[in-house]
Amino acid sequence: RGKRGTADLHKACDALRDYQLLVFGCFISGWVIYFFAAILQVWIFYSSQVAFIVTIPLGCFILAIVWYSVDLTRNLHLRDDE
């Protein structure tokens, strides 16, 4: 717990809450960058026809990840007074 008991525990929880949005944003950014890199890799190694076909579902995955992460965050976010 720390030298001051539960006061240190509350301080640690407050610090984690402060960084929660930043860490979640980095996590979602990592997924978006991963799918974007996969799209670029397909365009490099395969013909244009195959790459175009693959780009459509991967692009949909990118849009779905962004849409659901924004929607869930907006619906589940608590204000500071709650």
Automatic annotation (TrEMBL):
Keywords: Membrane, Transmembrane, Transmembrane helix. It comes from the Eukaryota. The chain crosses the membrane at residues 21-44, 50-70. This is Uncharacterized protein. The lineage of its organism: Eukaryota, Sar, Alveolata, Dinophyceae, Suessiales.
